# Entry
Amino acid sequence: MDLLINIDSASAAPLHRQIYDEVRRAILSGRLAKGKRVPSTREMAKMLGVSRATVTLAFEYLLSEGYFQTYKGSGTYVSKHLPDELTYVSEELAEEAHHLAEEAFEQIGSSGAFPAPETSGAFPVIEPALTPAPEGQKRRRGRKLSLYGMSLRSRDWLGFPDDEPEIQFAFGRPDLDEFPMRVWNQLMNKRCRQRKLDLLDCPTKAAGYEPLRKAISRYIARARAVICDPEQVIIVNGSQQALDLVNRVLVDPGDLVGIEEPGYIGAQKAFQAQGARLIPAYVDKNGVRVDYLKARLGKDGDKLKVLYVTPSHQYPTGVVMSLPRRLELLTWAKREGTIIVEDDYDSEYRYSGKPMPALAGIDDGGTVIYVGTFSKVLLPALRLGYLVVPKDLVGVFSRAKWLADRHSSLLQQQVLADFILQGHLSKHVRRMRAIYQERRKLVIECLKGLFEDDVTIYGENAGINILLRLKTDLADDEIVARARRLGVGVVSTRQLYLQDAPSAEFLLNYGGLKEDEIVEGLSRLRAAIADKEQPLIQPA
Amino acid sequence: MDLLINIDSASAAPLHRQIYDEVRRAILSGRLAKGKRVPSTREMAKMLGVSRATVTLAFEYLLSEGYFQTYKGSGTYVSKHLPDELTYVSEELAEEAHHLAEEAFEQIGSSGAFPAPETSGAFPVIEPALTPAPEGQKRRRGRKLSLYGMSLRSRDWLGFPDDEPEIQFAFGRPDLDEFPMRVWNQLMNKRCRQRKLDLLDCPTKAAGYEPLRKAISRYIARARAVICDPEQVIIVNGSQQALDLVNRVLVDPGDLVGIEEPGYIGAQKAFQAQGARLIPAYVDKNGVRVDYLKARLGKDGDKLKVLYVTPSHQYPTGVVMSLPRRLELLTWAKREGTIIVEDDYDSEYRYSGKPMPALAGIDDGGTVIYVGTFSKVLLPALRLGYLVVPKDLVGVFSRAKWLADRHSSLLQQQVLADFILQGHLSKHVRRMRAIYQERRKLVIECLKGLFEDDVTIYGENAGINILLRLKTDLADDEIVARARRLGVGVVSTRQLYLQDAPSAEFLLNYGGLKEDEIVEGLSRLRAAIADKEQPLIQPA
# Structure
């Protein structure tokens, strides 16, 4: 292998990281051809003058991310399933990647593979609920709200009841009791004593507290293979504000925006309120169907401004987007000039299968806006998250953040920076992964025990929720109402679909529930459905 | 006086507050005629069966807010300068109020009365920098941003240099060292130990932590005469987010929005980015010139969607809007259907003259959106502020807040609620008022000593900044550059004007500076201007 690998022992980057980066670059640039045999870890270690353990670590990353593959007893090869060159990939190679995705990559996230959508050539556009009234035509009486404001008028806008049931499966929450509040409070005390209230009131500083931006850029490089400058990290109040800024900076009323079908309600509502025309991006067992998007959007020259995706754990189906599908998506988006918004909301929790690098880690820096949040991994109450934006958009996003609310709370940014830099975040993630894995196991056992063949489970290998479809004649609303009467909150996925939703599909968020609550809650759900009583809700 | 005053000793409202409310209502509804003599405090106390001190307190409020007036030795009367009935005030009465404003009310905020603008019938509209390209016409190359995003492209968008000078007069900051961090930290410790992380993830709870909303509604009732239900209080991340939500909910591109001329840059930039067409609302010694707005807007049937004002301490002129002007403005706005956004950013600091109730305290609840912030009174780093919105807009604003960033940081909301309820806020305000009053005195002494007749000072009786106009031949940029070379940051008001700005007008923010810094900073500013050297900046 005539592979030039530059490693720099003076660099701050760990040696295994440098090897990984160099090999990856060689593969993606075509210098290292697909299918080619790779030297053994022993050979490579000797070549580079580093320990064999260092090389092994780098190889494990490359294997786990699909850049390398192994055949029993015959060594390690560059994967055949990668296009030669990501940046200038040809149409044919993208097609090939798509087919490979279908054939070669098993779905790794689901016991039941999420079924491909039944669409026979119909590729709808969901128009915004409100469009500007023609010139001269009067708006309806009362307050003169903006189109955005008018779209928020309905009381039924998001149909969550106010009161909390005893056992709540309906909201995606982490376990609040497990949050290391003592550590957090100690760090907070220290920062309060320091009183270093560096002022962020200047628009150029709106993007956040420098040390936190640095800490995050290191964290996501390690955890998600996203390589960026700290200046590309914009601190926001959780992922919802990230979406709001994307909306502001990129989307005009009438623009086409793609969102996964089914998809995250916070994104759907935000883009709809902005007046975007939504295109459903159907999801199958490998993630978003890029071929559908191509067919739909090639037709009449329309281009997607933004495509919102959750590749590490599709919300709500739990599908993990396969590597070929990721490459196909990136290649297509780059050609179209579509910005991919990658919401990596709970990527920390992965229980089986290969960990997959973020889309933003494969992108060469111009196509993907990466969204991360500490709401799932720490506390939603903190309201801290971040965007990683392409370099040419840093200025515009910083200014948009300044206009939105100047900057995020400084004390909390300082404490979070300390928390990450002192290793508490990684430790907490590891601890919680074990806890959630136990809960996930329990949820699946309970569901299978209680519902037997009447349940299909999806997306259980990652995150802190799972999707299930039940066999029942009851309407979704009836199930929700019956469960609630028994003190259990469940949410149907109906409002996560832009179009017709399958019936009796529910999202169970188990992250915040203790084991006894899970057992009790699922038993009550079973009882609610088994009940032969009169329906609570009369069909309309 | 056949005045029926109902007081209820079982009510939670203090007795003096009840008396104040009843009398005020009687005046505004016309039951208590203008010019009528009012019983003495002794008579009234006997009549109502309460202590004389209670009545005296109520009367003091009514006097200080201009509802009552006194003549030497002849007792207390209902003010003659109030229209009979605010809610149904006639055109004539509004006109009368305007004239009374000119004649009878002295300007109470300025040693130099802020000069009326020189406008001879010219009432311009400032069109947004960017308007949508006509259908089919291509936008310029590069990233496809939204119109909002495009308006933020320029690096010169807000011309603040990154680095901090030694002595900074350019930003409106409180004194960070005086913030009661020990108390804050103790409250934070307690809340952390409690771990009561009540979840606000439901859209109906996005408006904030209930006890904080209650605490704020009580605080502004007492401090600003704004009477509202806690549910009308929407917690946001400082006043900038309040403006952003107003923009979202009320303003469409092309809508007319009025902002004070000169006015607050954060509002100007936000409305401009939204694509609003801006109308300059000129300011004289009594506040916004309502007659100009009437003349401009009556002409071709245009209506203002929103008018942004800072009546308690106009930013940057420091003018305090007179009561008749307030009534004239409200009457006009109500008739036009214009929403008044009242930004009460530093009303806590008032050093002389009568305290004036907020506009929202006079409004009957449908016209004014009130904006408050803790950035000036506590810490900008906290990012906590609030909106008080009319009842019919509570739902829409809550949902807009949910879409913007779900809710504001819960822990900080909890701590702030405790801080207010335990009386620390009022205590802090009283303490800081004394400190800032000393600083203000010092600033004025120094300016007068150093610049003598070359300076005119405006708006020094309130807030934590003052406006000054210098007599000098130097260009604004030259003065800023020279001061900066001497380690002093000053900001010209040029960018606060939509149209031509006077030259050598500067805003001095002294709140965050110690006395020695003030003396040193102003001496250096004097030296910078007196310097006979070559200009640093060549005229373009």
User: Anything to note?
Assistant: The first strand of chain A starts at residue 37 and ends at 38. The two ends of chain A are 70 Å apart (CA to CA). The longest helix of chain A spans residues 424-451. Confidence is low (pLDDT under 50) at residues 83-111, 133-140 of chain A.
